[in-house]
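re the bet — no i am not wrong, look at it urself. input seq straight from the record:
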Amino acid sequence: MQCWRLDDGRQTLVLAARRTRLPEVIYWGAPLPATDNLETLADAHRLDVTGGMLDENPDLSICPEAVRTFPGQPGLILRAHDGTPLLPKFCYAAQETTEHSITLTYADDANGLTYRAEITLDPDTHVLTLTSEINAETPVHLHWLSAPVLPAPQNSEEMIDVSGRWCGEFQLNKTAWSPGIRYRENRTGRTGHEHFPGLIVLGPGATNTQGEAWGFHYGWSGGHRMVAEELPDGRRQIQFGHAARMETEPSTRFKSAPLYAVYSSDGLNGIAVSYQRQVRDRIVTWPDATRARPVHYNCWEAVYFDHKLDVLKDIADRAADLGAERFVLDDGWFGNRDDDTQSLSDWEVDPRKYPEGLHPLINHIHSLDMSFGIWFEPEMINPNSNLFRAHPDWAAGSEDQILGRQQMALDMSRSDVRDFIYERMSAILREYPIDYIKWDHNRVLPMPDAAQTRGSYALIDRLRAEFPQVEIESCASGGARIDFGILERTQRVWLSDSNDALERLKMQHNAALFIPAAITGSHVGPRICHTSGRQLDIRFRAWVAAQRHMGFEMDPRELTDDEAAVLTEVTSWWKHNRAWMTGADILRLDSADPAVIAEQQAARDGSRFVVFAGKATTSAQIAPRPLRLTRLDPDAQYRVTLVNRNSVSTLSRGAPALKEGPMTLSGQYLMSQGLTLPWSFPETMWVVEGERL
């Protein structure tokens, strides 16, 4: 028997292997005593057998092997170079272990294959990072390679995965466990609105704030495959890897992307906080980690393709007066880009719109103490473009493919394509003082291909190496490329093309299960939302944007004096609090009223918090239900203040104390009874600050 163990004080992971076989995870959950005998645990883990079964249950190993009569989805499917199916049988070869990492190597000498699994546990974020790798003596074809396989608990009743659509990302789906497979595969070639690569397995009775939960995220931008399988004997396995058949060429080496996994004993918030900290503190690399997150202005929904220098200067003046600190010039500045049918890939400044180049605009923006950002869509090309006319073979896919937004994808697996785009982009970045790129990706690929994603990564990495001071936002028709793989190379994501604050309220709430506020762009949109047609009050729009990395994306010329005053006030509040909120943990609250979507952003040292309680629709009851807070010191006293009590409606006729001014309450009271908020209309937000005394 061979056994391995990882601990971080919040969880224990135990692997065990009989003889020379691949190991299986025999325990993953609440921390076990250091005195537990691991071989005894392995024996205790063994299942009984009965009639109609094999004489022994095949191991649910970190890479289940078909050759060992495993009855479920195998962890690896290979073919030899001539197409012959391979059925590897791996045996122990070597190991490397540290206090927080295990690296195991297994060999199949008959087929000339080596399997290597790496598992590391971050003792601060509590996130496990798992990768698998196959090496072959001669080239082989890969159909499927899972990251190291983890078990799911048999007492779980349901799981949560994430779907969505354009302008409706991060929708949570609960699915009951049943015999067979919950199978999701994204073959669009990018992460996708529809298939965020995440899964949460719920323990019995788990909520946002209590109960056990297990989280999974696959850090890859090119399309993934998820298998959540219940075997005939009741055991359950979770597999994540690249979408099947993504590797079109034979090779001697294949490696999975990292699978990020975490166990929580305090509900979904335990998973959310771990992932938020992992992304913010481990995965994202900041051009300047000491720089405050700037208030963002994007001109897209103000002017679209109609760029006029005097108009943009006027808009910049107004944005600066509102508190903006960065101005982003969106689509329409290059080639003959008067609409979305032309000029993608012609990355040269349009002399018709900018006869003196971008310098006059950038100089004006800098005179307002704002930095300057610009939009690119580097991986795409319009058939109506100079580049396509010169190199039609650089477009990926067939000649008669269906276009998306009147465009095709460039073949990023080609080094000559990457070199060309790099030279065009770097020329712009060298000539102009640009500190931000909005990097868009507005269509799915015509076919899945892992080489495309690796090529895109290579281009971003090359540009970041030459221009390390430039921050990059990942945008893909909104939230279609949000994953930990792209976040190794970028510092911000555009969660959705919808600036509808009501839709954003729920999307942001759900996305917080995986991503922190510091990298989540959220903008105050126009009075009438361009994607939903909904008209929302400026107070609601501003406070929803203030929940994340705040920005504006409307024409500021439309604002009334009252709207401008409100937006300026909320922006000032955000600036005053951003230093601590940037590193805060976002905790989803269990609201007793389904109409209320609420979260508590808490400083890591417990010194302060802010509660955002958004009312999405009409409540079933008349008076607001108390809103319980979480993760406070029960014995401490907290001074709580309703920040926006001036927004109280005249229909709020009672006298809850928060309407009158600050209160001092114990953490125990706030967690057991909760906040009693004033009555409010739907599509409004209460904001409550708390400070530990």
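see?? Residues 583 and 607 are 13 Å apart (CA to CA). told u. also DSSP finds twelve helices and 35 strands in the chain. so pay up
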